[in-house]
Amino acid sequence: MWGTLSVFSGNANRQLAEAICRYLRIPLGRADVFEFSNENIFVKINDVVREQDVFVIQPTCSPVNRSNLELLIMIDALKRASAARITAVVPYYGYGRTDKKDQPRVPITARLIADLITVSGANRVLTVDLHAGQIQGFFSIPVDELTAAHLFIDYFRDKRLRDAVVVAPDLGAAKRARNFAVAIGVPLAIIEKRRMVNGGEAEALNVIGEVEGRQAIIFDDEIDTAGSLIQAVQALKERGVGEVYACCTHPVLSGPAIERLRGVPVRELVVTDTIPLPPHKQLPTITVLALAPLLGEAIRRIHAGESIGALFGE
Questions:
Q1: Which domains does the chain have, with CATH numbers?
Q2: What confidence tier does 195 reach under pLDDT thresholds 50, 70, 90?
Q3: Tens digit of pLDDT for each residue in 232-282?
Q4: pLDDT given for residue 29 in this prediction
Q5: Are strands 286-289 and 268-272 parallel, antiparallel or unpaired?
Q6: Within 10 Å of residue 113's Cβ, how many Cβ atoms?
Q7: Which positions are annotated as active-site residues?
Q8: Residues with Cβ < 8 Å from 282, sequence gap 6 or more?
Q9: pTM for the full model?
Q10: What is the DSSP code string of 27-47?
Q11: Which of 36, 92, 97, 150 is positioned for an S-S bond with 274, CB 3.0–4.6 A?
């Protein structure tokens, strides 16, 4: 059994940290985390953490590099304050898409970030729906990966859509989408992207599976610029799909994403709060599901030495 449970937060998603603390019925730890005028980040832990079991809530979302540095510096400060154990709670793992060397002379940044978190002093990591499962293996410390799929399963079961089909927006998302489709008892379709025969940059989309007349649910781990989502919706509409829904764990929604979503015929986009949505991104069609109970229960179980897998019947 570890010492007293403490939870601290950087600036990336303080609202989520506060909600987790409400679930755990403990106060959020006091810390100063800010940037000087010279862009140096400063952290001061204002509570005693000696021999305590500390969890740092910090998704590495926009601004990604600042969020990463805040996390690393907070972990270092807690280590130097003699915390007994430090768990980096990273609901969204930035740089997760740079998980392999897919062309010459490029980095594997997801591994580099894992090394930095470990070297900074973290003893374990808690995260949600990594872009690639092998990222767990980039760490030399224990990693607990939660999934938000069960939230989406319950949500869409309750909607009782008629004649629904789950759609993977590309082959890379097929496994997650298949598991989701099986859980809600509907068939799976996959969007296959192909380069045009003439060698141009445009992509031809082929829909594998029966979708005509059905209600489609596009399922993915994150939506970034919404380019793939737009292409998927267009391909589905061309093949006679009725209503289109979409869901993802991480609403990155960078660059032109919001403008694109305003113009795309998606009835509802269901996301979680791993990443906070500023007011200009809170469209009427976006529904946000709360992750605090799931993360809070995982933190409680880690602190108590109980099984995380049991949360999902494993």
A1: 5-147+292-312 (3.40.50.2020), 149-289 (3.40.50.2020)
A2: low
A3: 999 999 999 999 999 999 999 999 999 999 999 999 999 999 999 999 999
A4: 98
A5: parallel
A6: 24
A7: 193
A8: none
A9: 0.94
A10: PPPPEEEEE-TTS-EEEEE-S
A11: 92
